[in-house]
């Protein structure tokens, strides 16, 4: 199937270079271009492309405002943001993901043509992945908030726990793995949980420098404390640990408590951090103590290790196809028979609370 790409960028260099790149690959077709959202909108409504490549800084209307407008419509278009404002770890990149972008690509202010041509293979792979996705339309009134965050809002939240007062009782760990679309999905789940939930260890496929900013964003919006994991951190109630981009994270048990190890190493399933690495370590040290959750994402990272967790007696959950941006990772785990429950995104926070209530 030919992937139809529409480019919205005020740079003529970007539009011309992307035309050259797309015309040189039989799997892609340039559906059209526009120098700003106001000119793009009637063209997109007339003929919907498979994927949109969108800049942020443009005259008339900025790209994020345009993206939120598109996501609020009935059939949101899978969108890749390509902007000088979305450098690694930038707040703008996280805002774009929260607004519904499938992926973000940072571009330099100088040498645009060379950058796009040098990044051709990765850029086309990103566009192809985005074209297969099903972005969720905006459902909440808060600009910049996760497009699906309100789905779990029925679960009551409380104040943050007072530091130093958490119990040293065994904390049954909750493990989450996700990739494409996961930034929104994780925010939905965490915003639906109270401050004293079991500790949660998360692997979200993100590059280096993104994860610290992402954790800070979640820490501001959720009742639980959220931070990028450091080697030796204890996984305690009320705390969420995000695996650092560019490093793996493992779970280990010592003196009845769970800790994380953050370590370097080769990519696993093409990813670092890898969900397989976290889930496999949990199968070895936690077994039936653990709840493992597989969220939206491309590929099969984590599926085989979830099977190990399942065999070790852990509770296992996969996000359903209808609420996934990309159903790849949950689907692979389901196909292996590694999943106890398949749930819509809006039901996963309540499932974590049920798991905790079982004691």
What's the topology here?
Layout lengths: L2 E6 L3 H12 L4 E7 L2 H10 L4 E4 L8 H10 L6 E5 L7 H9 L3 E4 L5 H7 L1 H12 L42 E5 L3 H9 L9 E5 L5 H12 L3 E4 L10 E4 L5 E7 L2 E7 L11 H11 L5 E4 L8 H9 L3 E5 L8 H8 L5 E3 L4 H10 L2
Parallel strand pairs: 1-2, 1-3, 3-4, 4-5, 6-7, 6-12, 7-9, 8-9, 12-13, 13-14
Antiparallel strand pairs: 10-11
Write out key terms for the chains shown.
359 residues, alpha/beta, Rossmann fold, seven-stranded parallel β-sheet, five-stranded parallel β-sheet, 33% helix
Short description:
With 359 residues, the protein is an alpha/beta fold. It has twelve helices and 14 strands. The chain has two domains: 129 residues, Rossmann fold, CATH 3.40.50.2300; 209 residues, Rossmann fold (3-Layer(aba) Sandwich), CATH 3.40.50.
Structural class: alpha/beta
Please summarize the sheet with the most strands: 7 strands, parallel
Share of helical residues: 25-40%
Q: List the secondary-structure elements in sequence, H or E.
A: EHEHEHEHEHHEHEHEEEEHEHEHEH
Average pLDDT, to the nearest integer?
88
């Amino acid at each position: 199937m030919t992937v139809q790409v529409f480019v919205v960028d005020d740079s003529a260099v970007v539009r011309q270079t992307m035309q050259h790149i797309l015309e040189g690959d039989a799997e892609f077709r340039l559906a059209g271009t526009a120098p700003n959202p106001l000119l793009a909108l009637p063209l997109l409504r007339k003929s919907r492309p498979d994927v949109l490549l969108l800049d942020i800084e443009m005259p008339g209307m900025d790209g994020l405002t345009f993206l939120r407008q598109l996501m609020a419509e009935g059939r949101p278009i899978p969108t890749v943001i390509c902007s000088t404002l979305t450098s690694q770890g930038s707040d703008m990149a996280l805002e774009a993901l929260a607004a519904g972008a499938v992926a973000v690509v940072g571009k330099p202010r100088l040498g645009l043509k060379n950058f796009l041509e040098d990044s051709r293979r990765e850029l086309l792979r990103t566009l192809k992945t985005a074209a297969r996705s099903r972005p969720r339309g905006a459902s909440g009134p808060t600009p910049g908030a996760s497009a699906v965050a309100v789905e779990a809002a029925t679960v009551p939240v409380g104040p943050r726990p007072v530091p130093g007062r958490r119990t040293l009782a065994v904390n049954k760990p909750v493990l989450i793995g996700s990739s494409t679309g996961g930034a929104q999905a994780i925010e939905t789940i965490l915003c639906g949980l109270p401050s004293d939930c079991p500790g949660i260890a998360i692997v979200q496929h993100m590059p280096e420098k993104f994860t610290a900013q992402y954790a800070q964003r979640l820490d501001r919006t959720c009742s639980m404390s959220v931070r990028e994991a450091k080697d030796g951190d204890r996984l305690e109630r009320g705390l969420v640990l995000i695996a650092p981009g560019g490093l793996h994270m493992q779970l280990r048990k010592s003196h009845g408590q769970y800790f994380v190890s953050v370590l370097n190493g080769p990519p696993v399933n093409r990813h670092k951090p890898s969900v397989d690495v976290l889930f496999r370590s949990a199968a070895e040290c936690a077994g039936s103590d653990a709840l493992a959750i597989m969220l939206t994402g491309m590929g099969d990272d984590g599926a085989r290790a979830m099977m190990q967790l399942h065999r070790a007696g852990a509770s296992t959950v996969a996000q359903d196809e209808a609420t996934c941006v990309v159903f790849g990772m949950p689907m692979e785990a389901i196909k292996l028979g590694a999943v106890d429950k398949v749930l819509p995104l809006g039901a996963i926070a309540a499932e974590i609370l049920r798991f905790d209530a079982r004691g």
